[in-house]
Amino acid sequence: MTTDRYRRVRSLHHHCVRHVDRVRLLGVLLASAGILAGCSGEKKASAAQPRVIKQGDVPPRQSVVDFPAQPYRAVGVSAGGRITGTIDFDGPIPRDSVIQLAADQMGCGQSITDARVEHSGPRIGGAVVWLTDIRAGKPLAVERRFELSNKDCILTPRIQAVITSGTLNVASEDAALHRNRIINVATGETEGIAPFNDNGEVVPFDRLLSKPAQLEVVCDFHAWQRAWILVFDHPYFALSARSGDFSIADIPAGTYRVKAWHPVLGIAEQTVTIAAGQDAKLALKLVQPAATPIPVPAPVTAPASTG
After folding, report:
1. Domain segments of the chain: what residues?
2. Comparing C-alpha atoms, which of 270, 278, 233 is closest to residue 252?
3. I need a labelling partner for 286 at 20 to 30 A (CA). Which of 19, 48, 50, 250 fits?
4. For 96-155, what is each residue's pLDDT tens digit?
5. Residues 6 or more apart from 259 whose CB is under 8 A from it?
6. Comparing 48-62, 188-202, 286-300, which segment has the lowest mean pLDDT?
């Protein structure tokens, strides 16, 4: 082989080797990118991608808590006003129901009394009242730890209002199997599950209350167990006492929309004008919406007791 021909062959060989190395390097980079994308757990956004229905999800419903168009701002409130009032219901109030339990409902006793409505005559307790359109006012409370407990196979408190960015501790005081499913009413999606095998257990949720929402809590093993949690990003809400009385204080002067809600008896809404340093009195009357079936998750069979 001549010297010139040897040089040409060697040059071609080096060129091919460099090309192969570049292809291999590109392959490694692409594979690494794929691995990193997979580790992130993120999916590409696609408007055409349907929501995956998971076990326990239910059809979405109209939420009584609207997602605000603007964030809430904490400002100084001087000479704030106050709303005081009562909540009534004009109609027959459902009586407490007694649920007779089968022998295999371990840890729940022989019967359960389900008190659906707390009231004193026509006055309704346990209704949540709030300002729907307030976007600036007093700071949020520093303490944001809330509790929900399985006690005597009933969820308590049945109705509560909480602040965003708090922690919800779900607990069980029962020597019974529970699996509490927390559902976002507006989406129908399961936001969290708290399983219990015995009493004294606590499951904390520190991300569940991240935004305003209406949450419904059910038990996969006991169909009668229900609770409701309204999540607000402002402090202007209250829960009515058994006497039907409520009070919301330190409200900046202005005109607001007030809403009251009870999961059994319905909704009341009214506009109120607050003058600086003055009280405004309201008499709210709940109106029961048209009867519609309440969606429930697919039933789940509790594991057989080995005791």
Report:
1. 1-32, 73-286
2. 278
3. 250
4. 989 988 776 778 888 899 888 999 999 999 999 999 999 999 999 998 999 999 999 999
5. 64, 129, 130, 132, 267, 268, 269
6. 286-300
CATH of 73-286, one of 3.40.50.300, 3.40.50.720, 2.60.40.420, 3.30.559.10: 2.60.40.420
Q: CA torsion sign, 248 to 251 to 255 to 257?
A: negative
Nearest to 268 by CA among 288, 253, 248, 254: 288
- Looking at the chain, how many residues does it have? 307
Report phi then psi at 118, rounded to 5: -95, 125
C-alpha span between 150 and 179 (Å, rounded) = 10
Decide: 191 and 112 in contact? Cβ < 8 Å. no
